[in-house]
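Person: Show me a sequence?

Helper:
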Amino acid sequence: MNGTPIIEKAAAALKAGAVMTDPAGLAVLRPDNPLIDGCVPPVGVVRPENAGELGKLLACANENAMNLCVVSSAGSHYHGTFASDREHLLVDLSSWQGIPWINRRNRVCLIEPGVTYGQLLAALDPEGLTVSMPLAPPAGKSVLAACLDREPSTWPNKQWDIGDPVASTEFYFGGGQRFRTGAAGGPGSLEAQRAAGGAQKCPTGPSQTDFHRVIQGAQGTMGIVTWMTIRAEIKPTIQKPFLLVDDNPGRLVSFVYAAQRPGLGEHSFIVNRICAAMLINAARRGKKPCPAESLPEYICLQNIAGFEVLPKERVAYQVEDIREKSRQAGLKMKRSLRRISADEFLGIATRPCGDSDWRRQPTGDYLSVFFLTTLDRTEELIGVFESIAGSCGFGRDAVGIYIQPVTQNHACHMEFIVPYDRQRDIDAARKLEQESTAALMENGAFFSRPYLSAGNRVLCRNPQNLTVLKKIKDIFDPNRVLNRGKWGL
C-alpha cells in the first residue's frame, strides 16, 4: 500500500486532525544519525488521542497491511529505535504525558509514554520520592522508552533485575490484543486492585507469565505500551558525593567491586576525562569550557546518601567504610578536583542535560558503541576498541569511555563515545563502528541493546535465535504491522 491510501485509511479510523503530513513536522521526527543506513522518512505521523484510538489504529493497520513505527520521546532523535527502511506511519505518543497515580506507601507510580524525566522528578518530589535514571538524559527523553530499552541508571544498587524499574504494563500486541502484565494483569480493574491494597508493583504475571519481557528490548517490534508502573525510590535527604581518580581504570574497578559487594553507597560510575569533559561542558553551555586535558585520566563518582531514618548517622558510617575500601585500593576520596566539585558532578549526572544529548556537545555527531560485560574485563575491552579506533584515524584522546555498574554490579554497561565531523569523518566512523562491534563481540562483549551493525551481527551469530524470534513475531504480530522487516522480522 502506498502513502496516500495509508494516510486516508488511518485518518478514517481516528478523529480529525490525528494524522499529520506536514513536511516540516515529518522532518523533526526523522532520526538525525548519519550512521543509520537506509532509513526512510514516514509518510505521515499519527497522534491517537488515547488507548482506545490506538486500538482502532492497530485494527486498521492489521486490516490494511500497514507498517507502524512508534516514538515516545520529544526533541531530536539519534539512536533511531523507530527507524525503518520501508514505507511506514509513525505513531507519536510523546503528547501522552499523564502521571495519574503516585503511591508513596509502595514507592510506585504510573506513567504514560511521553512523560520525561524532568516531569517525573517534579511530580515525585512533593512525595519525597525520586527515580533512578540514565546518565544526564536529554530533556525530551521518555522515561517509558528508556525503561523499555533497558538504558542503565547511575544508581546500580537500586536495580535487582535487568528489567527494573519496570513493574506492571499495559500494551497492545501488534495483532491488536490489549494486554496487562505484572500485578496489573488481574483479577479486577486497577481501581479494584488498589482498593484491596494492590499497587501494581510486581512485574511478573498474570499467573506465572512475564510477557512484558517480550516487549522490553524489542525496539517497538512486538507491541505498543500505553502505560507503565515503575518503582520509585525514597529521595535522599543528605548526599555527600566523592571523586576518586587514577591514570587507568584498574584500581577504580577494584574499588567499585569492594564498595558494591556489601551494598555501600548510592550512585556510582566511572568515566574517562574525554567523557567527563563532554558531560561538564554540556551542562555549562555558554560558560568557559572545561578542557579534557585539565582532568584526571579516569574519574569515579561515588555518592553516599542518608534518607529519612538517621540520615547523618548513615552517611557518617558509610563515609568511613567506603574510605577504608578506597585506602585498600590505593586511592583517595576527594570532594573536588581543580575543575569540578563532586557535588556539581553528581548534579550534572542526575538531572536532564538539556534539549540535546550531552554526547553531541563537542561536534554535533558521535558514534556510540555500547554493550554489557563485567567490570574485570573493561581494561581488556578498552584495549580492543582503542586499537581499532587508532587504525581508523581516531586517537586515544578522541574516545570517551563510560563504565556503569548495573544490577548491583553483577554486570556493567560499557560505552565508547567518539565525536566526529559529519562531513569529514563519516566513512571512518562507519568503519570504526562495524569493525569494533565485530571485534568486541569476538572478545565476549554482550550486545543486549543492538543498534546499527550490532543488530544483524547478534542475530547472525546464532541463527536459532532468529528462528525463535520469528515464531514469537508470528504469535504476537502475525501481520507484521510493527516496524516490518527490522532484524529480518
